[in-house]
Amino acid sequence: MMRRELVTGYIHIKGVKVKRVEEHRDRLLNIIKDINSLAPQSLIIVEGNTDEEIVRSLIYNQIEVLSYLKFKEVISRSQIHREFLILTDFDGEGATLHKIIRKLILEKGVKESRVRDDLRARIRKILIIYGYSVYDALSNLKRCADIEMEDFKAYVTSDYSHLLYDIYDNG
Q1: Main-chain dihedrals φ then ψ at residue 54, nearest 5 degrees
Q2: Could you report how far apart the first and last alpha carbons of the chain are, in Å?
Q3: Contacts for 10 with CB less than 8 Å, ≥ 6 apart
Q4: What is the pTM of this model?
Q5: CA–CA separation, 134 vs 127, rounded Å?
Q6: CA distances to 27, 63, 91 from 122, in Å
Q7: Residues 97, 128: contact at Cβ < 8 Å?
Q8: Binning pLDDT at 50, 70 and 90, where does residue 57 land?
Q9: Which domains are seen in the chain, by residue range?
């Protein structure tokens, strides 16, 4: 398989572009696993309300998601959160905002190891293929994975990977 086919999730068969839904589902599954690998009582900070909404749709663990403006209001209680994931957009403005938020968290005395930049990098590596904003990238990934998240969330368990293939391939 060529690199372009791996990145886009499409394969050419006799000159016709065919979607490889399984690859998009695997990517979505990896993002869901990564986000939910945060410890309970963790906090994910995103840029706006739409980002907050779409990231919250992927969470089944006890993780709080806040937009940057709401985060600024609750920064004083940051000590109660176990880990932090700063999931801002993947453009220049998002990188600048990431640095500002990270600095605010560290100034509150939070250990650097509790700010999960490693997780942000893994998620970014997947989502950057689908768009530069978190909302657009996750929306495009969900669309390409051909999954109704409302139905998906109803079936989520601690071991949910079989759902992506069993439920949606039979439907």
Answers
A1: -75, -35
A2: 28
A3: 17, 18, 19, 20
A4: 0.75
A5: 7
A6: 11, 18, 16
A7: no
A8: confident
A9: 22-158 (3.40.1360.10)
